[in-house]
Specification:
The chain has a domain of 199 residues: NAD(P)-binding Rossmann-like Domain (Rossmann fold), CATH 3.40.50.720. It has 11 helices and 15 strands. It has 315 residues and is an alpha/beta fold. A 7-stranded parallel sheet has the order 3-2-1-4-5-7-12, sandwiched between helices. A two-stranded parallel ribbon has the order 6-15.
Length: 315
């Protein structure tokens, strides 16, 4: 049994990863921004070194899964100061403690780091091709990867980096800054118009498939490795919208079609070979089924057809 800290534990992935790791017998602690009710919960802003010091000076962890981050392209435009503070300074703060205490770290990057690259996204592309990141969110995630690599070279820290491809599913609570999967499902359910940008192709990953592989890192930790984790269906965004309309029964007139959205990676085609080999990554939930499960969860959480409920996000 290892003592594990999950930062950003109340986020979409964290709320699934924590019970998965606990089910495997690990002593898992949660860290996030707001107050919460788990007896292993630690409230902390990773961008505050003082707050981290209050926690890490009295706890020694074997592994830190560092998920805590501000998410999303437009979130990074509207709240860029918070984005950079959390994603860059927060990650550096975690690394400083890693250098002191020697814990292993799993750093969560993003498929957005592949920027303007339009070919098959293998992990080695970032070392072989000059990439231009297209938005601040992508930039901060690449900065985080560089911070991890520099610390490993200078201080011998041990980190595995993961690049997630459009992970979605139950547990992703709606805001205008969330994933395209979440936006479409929520807005279709509530009869809110939404826009489909033509020409964008994605590899969506259902959250339980991603989490299973992520938890396997603890059992097969390979310092310095980087893994793509993405679903098995390479699809356009129009197809995603069609599945959402099918699952919700929404009126197709809610959808407006426009040409591609600027400053975001247009085509994300993933190579999962390394994650399949080392982490037993497997796709068990199709996009159509994943959308249906997400819609069913949202119907219950947001009580569609009943009085709206606020702050129902309990783990």
């Amino acid at each position: 049994m290892n003592k594990i800290l999950v930062t950003g534990a109340l986020g979409t992935i964290g709320r699934h990863l924590v019970p998965e790791l606990r089910a495997r017998g690990h002593d898992v602690w949660l860290l996030d921004l707001r107050h919460y009710h788990d007896d292993r919960y630690l409230r902390c802003d990773v961008a505050s070194f003082r707050q981290l010091e209050r926690i890490l000076s009295v706890h020694n962890f074997d592994t830190v899964y560092h998920l805590a981050a501000e998410f999303g392209r437009w979130n990074g435009e509207d709240f860029y100061d918070t984005l950079w503070a959390t994603n860059a300074i927060g990650t550096k703060n975690i690394i400083r403690w890693q250098e002191r205490q020697g814990f292993q770290m799993v750093f969560f990057s993003s498929s957005e780091v592949y920027g303007d690259y339009d070919g098959l996204m293998t992990e080695e592309v970032m070392d072989q091709v000059e990439i231009k990141q297209l938005n601040d969110y992508a930039m901060t995630k690449w900065v985080g990867e560089m911070q991890c690599l520099n610390s490993a070279a200078m201080h011998g820290t041990e980190t595995v980096r993961v690049r997630l491809f459009n992970t979605y599913g139950p547990g992703e609570f709606y805001s205008p800054y969330r994933s395209v999967n979440c936006l479409f499902c929520y807005r279709a359910l509530l009869g809110i118009p939404y826009t489909v940008f033509r020409g964008h192709r994605r590899t969506s990953t259902y959250v339980s498939d991603a989490v299973r592989a992520l938890a396997n890192i603890e059992d097969n930790f390979r310092p310095g490795e980087v893994y793509n984790i993405g679903g098995g269906e390479f699809h356009d965004v129009e197809t995603l919208s069609e599945y959402v309309l099918e699952a919700t029964g929404a009126d197709p007139s809610l959808v407006t079609y426009r040409d591609g959205e600027p400053f975001t990676t247009k085509v994300k085609r993933v190579d999962n070979g390394k994650a399949t080999r080392d982490l037993d990554f497997r796709v068990t939930v199709s996009l159509r089924e994943g959308v249906q499960r997400t819609v069913d969860w949202m119907r219950e959480v947001y009580r569609v057809g009943e009085s709206p409920v606020i702050n129902t996000d309990v783990m």
